[in-house]
Amino acid sequence: MEHIQQHIEALIFASEQSITSAEIVACLSSVAGTDIAEKAVDEAIETISQKYEGEEHFFELIALSGGYQFMTKKRFAPTVSSLIQHRNKKKLSAAAMETLAIIAYKQPITKTEIEQIRGVNCDYSVQKLLEKELITIEGKSDAPGRPLLYATSKLFMDYFSLNSLNDLPQLKDIQTTNENEIGEQTEN
């Protein structure tokens, strides 16, 4: 098999958990259509391990749980930890996601209209969505008291990979289940 080392690197990279030599041999043999020697795989793994020991790489090949896995070098742990903490802060609660969905489909919309749809107060959710810059204030309504109008932001469009609001799933695209129905359904 040509470029066996690159194929092994690809398998290790794509594996979410450590991958054993036996699994690598099985995968490579399947692709090559012929048996690949475990000794050849072990030698290639040793070469790969040495290749990534250098300072120019931020990751290394680690023997783990009887297999192999690419791992970030320990000196980069604070940097990676910072990313994980940053991303965890961006998670939205179910209430915030519901509020965001209502705003996305009904924009521009007032907080009172959102609360009428949800049936609960949404002050906290709206505030969190504004802080995360997923929604913006579009102006004021002509209704009494001139309440603020909310709409989705450019960050919302980027985050959900949308070119326009027309790319949002339509109701007919959403599969519904009858799990929440009570009683037997009868035909009229």
UniProtKB/TrEMBL annotation:
One of its GO terms (biological process) is chromosome separation. Keywords: Cell cycle, Cell division, Chromosome partition, Cytoplasm. The keyword Cytoplasm applies. InterPro entries: ScpB_csome_segregation (IPR005234), WH-like_DNA-bd_sf (IPR036388), WH_DNA-bd_sf (IPR036390). NCBIfam families: SMC-Scp complex subunit ScpB. This is Segregation and condensation protein B.
